[in-house]
Description:
single chain; 602 residues; mainly alpha; two-stranded antiparallel sheet; two-stranded parallel sheet; 24 helices; 56% helix; globular
Amino acid sequence: MQPPPLPALLSSSTVSSSTTASTKKPKIKIKSRPHPNPDIRAAMAMTALGATWDDRQAQIVDEKSDVDDLSTTSNSTIESSSSFSSSSSSFLRDILCEAMLASGTSLTEAEIPDGSTLTSYLATYMVVHHPLYPFLHLPTFCPQSTPRPLLLSLLSLGALAHGNRDLASRLHVESKVLANARIDTTGFTCRTAPLWVIQTMLLNTSFAAWAGDPRGLEFACSVKSFLANLAAGMAYELTLRHHNHNHNNNNTEHAIIDSTDPTWLVHESARRTYFSVYIFFAQLTACFNFSPEIANTGQANLMVLPCDESAWSATTTVRSIQQQPTLKAGLDAVFSGADIYCSAFGKRVLASAMLMECWAGQVNRFRAQPEQLDAALLSCWRSVHVLSAAPVAAGEDYSWEHHGGKATWMLARARVYGLDVITIGVEDALRYHDAGEVLACVRAVAPAVSRSGATIVAAETAFEVVFGNRHDGQIASATGGVEDVIAGWECAMYLIMWLRRVEHDLALVAGEARIYVRAADERELGLLQRIKIMQELDDNDYDDHDNHNGIYHRTTGALSVFVGIWWSRHGAKNVKAGWGIRSVLRDIVGTYANEINQELVG
């Protein structure tokens, strides 16, 4: 029996009205205030983040921008911050000079940017990278009191997003040197490691893993076990102090959160750091097929999911916050279809957990059947309700923390129904960033893509991932994460291979070949028509002189070629972090589409 069609919930309008109408969300009382730190407040103004940290609709890039990084941030936005002076930002440059001197770096003082530039890097980190790993408590964040290795890692990621790759790499190296000096001290253990050491290790490992350089990934692989041990030690201490295993999974009582309580801040930051590490390992598994360092069992099950982002960013006592469930309680609710409340970040954690369940289902076929996994994934979308104090405008969806959570969910569903063919050899070759080897593996697995049974669900989901950020001929500019890159690359490659198989079969039918080939059914024809609409929109946007990538699909008319060329040009364009891995994957997809075009032309 063929699986049900892709639900309408994949559109941006999202959760069904019956679900939201029948369940009332607990109210959250948040009082918005300007950030108390004048330097961070100035940085916020520089990035048009607004007067308060709970403004979730801030944009730092022009929606019509066609660049890959933040180097073209609006100058008018920066100039609008008249309150920002060189004296209020010079401390960052002084701190950086001291750190460079302490580490014995070759970076001279003249090569260090001015304070205004460094502050913009820090603000860029807050806007672009903080939603990915939201463990910093922004209302109390103070650069002067931030440990130097952690501050350097924040600045390195901010510089990377601005396109200053050379400075970003040098700051990254200095951060590693200073962090290693602390790790090498006598008496250091994973259980007693300072929280900032774990956070610095996470950011530095993430920087290396997604740099688009195999040497960086090798470094990430060499330290990921150590990072997992650091996270485990921190989680063990947190479990002992809070007795997380005694939490009632069905507890619906409200809690009172005092965001001015230093103990609560440290514990919540530790939880967020742990789940940030968890999500990072899930990303490595999804992209390179590494075994996850943190499994959905044991210690991870006892961890309480992070609180709501509005409560985390509040500057006053927050009341009427529902008790957050543990990871185990969340997964149990997802597999049983029961309604459950959690934060938006918690829902992103659950999406990553479901992706890991799908990966385990591939490796151990006895763990879960595709039908069970798909039902659980649909439940993860419909039954996991997000606590949020932010107003939701008509047609907008805040049920996912950062777009990466939604991308993770869609990738998991596509893998359940056939996209897992990409993981057979292709992701292993991708670890070495050799385009020739990756394409050789792609050519080897392409014949395995079929048109039978559930593969249409995978193809429909792949279409939503590849073209889901395009509305009325425009590319959406909402900032995404590395999950968007991973999901987009896999879904683009699968959609190309599936379309190539359909085109081949339909050509045989048209040629009246003496072999039986199934004609396209109604769902396949519907999907082909949706892709043709995207092709027509693209033809209206670009002519032969404007398209710098070459419009091979206009020569052959093949939809498979069009999808490859389109994603190589627009793929994961909403990811503004400056990751090199995106360029690597874009080139591979574009080259594969060119090969298909040359084959068809020949």
